[in-house]
Amino acid sequence: MSGTRERLYPIGIIRSILKERREAPKQGREGAPDAWLEVRPSLAEGLDGIAVGDEIIVVTWLHRARRDVLSLHPRGDKGLPLTGVFATRSPDRPNPLGLHPVIVKKIIRNRLRIGPVEAIDRTPVVDIKPLLRSQAVQTSRSRVIERYRGVGRRAVTFAPRRQSRR
After folding, report:
1. Running DSSP on this structure, what letter comes out for residue 71?
2. What is the number of other CB atoms lying within 10 angstroms of the CB of residue 139?
3. 121 — phi, psi (to 5°)?
4. Alpha-carbon distance 164 to 51, whole Å?
5. What is the second-level CATH architecture of the domain 12-131?
6. Is the peptide bond before 116 cis (omega within 30 degrees of 0)?
């Protein structure tokens, strides 16, 4: 790979009431608000199949993180021993990717209301993935299978349809 350089391009941005890192909880489940995830209009087609109530993982680029940190006190607690950054959930790390499991609460065209999410306002979003838990997997599979009803000869149990983004 001589001369090549990997790059991440944002697919969207977070719009949140949280403006500074110090305002944000350490994790979404620790009192974070809901926020809007605005996907670039040219990529909105990629949202097809996401529905209100879905659990997704939003992958962000933590643009205000320090990239020179290799060890720290977990959760900023000096009473805890120094720990390698890769054994923590700290945003400060060489490649500051954030993983945010959230629930889709509302969909308006290329905008998803998600939450709870601890990402601050204007945080770049680099990817969205479905959260694969046993029930979430079953629901997603059922929705995809329902789309192709009548194709093939499989016996399938169908889940009720959820509100889509259209």
Report:
1. E
2. 19
3. -55, 135
4. 5
5. Beta Barrel (2.40)
6. yes
Give the pLDDT confidence of 86-134 residue by residue, as tens digits: 999 889 899 999 999 999 999 999 999 999 999 999 999 999 999 987 6
Let me know: does 83 contact 75? Beta carbons within 8 Å: no
At 69, list the tokens: 């940190």
Interatomic CA distance for residues 68 and 1, integer angstroms: 25
Cβ-proximal residues to 122 (8 Å cutoff; 6+ apart), any chain:
13, 14, 15, 63
Cβ density class 144-153: b for 16+ within 10 Å, e for less: ebeeeeeeee
Residue 131 contacts by C-beta under 8 Å, 6 or more apart in sequence? Answer: 54, 55, 56, 57, 101
Contact 17, 32 (CB under 8 A): no
The pTM score is: 0.75
Give domain limits for the chain. Answer: 12-131
- Nearest 5 degrees, angle CA 25-CA 66-CA 129? 60
**160: DSSP letter:** P
Burial class (CB in 10 A: 0-12, 13-18, 19+), 102: buried
